[in-house]
Amino acid sequence: MYFLDSTRNRHGSEIYKVKNNFNLPLKKDRQGNYKIKSGERIRVCMTSDFFLEEADSWRDEAWDMMRQRPDVLFFLLTKRAERVETCLPKDWGNGWNNICMNVTAENQRRADERISILLDLPFQYKGVVAAPLLEEIHIEKYLEKGKIDTVTVGGENYSGARPCDYAWVKSLYEQCVQYDVNFNFYETGSHFIKDGKHYHITKELQEIQAAKSGLYHQGSPIVFTYTQVQEYKQMELFNPVLRKKNCLKCSSCHKKNTCSGCSNCGRC
């Protein structure tokens, strides 16, 4: 994130509310239809952290948009699991059906720190994102509780990227297979190690190489529950159109569960 911000002459430490697309989930086209279709997945605040203290003043506005769009799945990811419960809306109850809560777990210390909190949080869907994966981690004691729906793994990119080892990824894959938890290895990262050999992999090939590894597990099915927006006469869920040339090579898109929204199909 710091690297990408620097290419736009910005500094990653600056925290601000975006102006143009903050209300994107509520924007409509000229025909009066939402630009974000029913059944689509919105990744919230992916280049920052939704639970930053600096965002406390405008987070309720974001919750309100999620409340108004129960027909859309919102994907949240945080390093600040300890702040989540105090930042939830008053009408949260046991969790909204259109919110998927995820914590990062780049090493064993952070996995133990954050996943233990995640298990007790009131969310309908929960996931672990081990990206960038920086060492071998063991999370069997959390997976066996049956509260984690998905584990997603990837390496690190851009300036100063640290290596990711195939053995670490395979270990997590085997843990998820053991407890029938959905697992997806979506990209290798810039520096990848396999059988002691170090590979430098360009960004455009990372998902392809991850897909070739075969480290993917379709575990217990996740059935997201969407609620029709009142103004819709009929709710038709969005279904991405996959193209053989690009999407079927991608470790995310061809499995339809963690599409990165590359827009190559022209429909996302």
Could you please describe the fold and organization of this structure?
With 268 residues, this protein is α/β, with parallel strands linked by helices. It has a single domain (2-255), classed as TIM Barrel. Helices cover 23% and strands 16% of the residues. It is built from 7 helices and 10 strands. It has helices at 2-7, 56-68, 81-84, 108-118, 140-143, 166-178, 203-212, and strands at 41-43, 73-78, 99-104, 125-130, 150-154, 164-165, 182-187, 191-194, 197-200, 216-217. It has a 7-stranded mixed beta sheet with strand order 1-2-3-4-5-7-10. The radius of gyration is 19 Å and the shape is globular. The mean pLDDT is 89.
Looking at the overall shape, the CATH architecture is: Alpha-Beta Barrel
Uncertain ranges: none
Over all CA atoms, what is the radius of gyration? 19 Å
What would CATH call the class?
Answer: Alpha Beta
Bin the helical content. 10-25%
**Spatial order of the strands forming the largest sheet:** 1-2-3-4-5-7-10
Shape: globular
- Averaging pLDDT over every residue, what do you get? 89
Task: Report how far apart the termini are.
Answer: 23 Å
Number of helices: 7
Total strands: the figure is: 10
Q: Which range does the strand content fall in? A: 15-25%
> What is the N-to-C order of secondary-structure elements (H for helix, E for strand)?
HEHEHEHEHEEHEEEHE
The largest sheet is: 7 strands, mixed
CATH third-tier fold name? TIM Barrel
Count of spatially separate domains: 1
InterPro entries: DUF5131 (IPR011101)
Protein name: Phage protein Gp37/Gp68
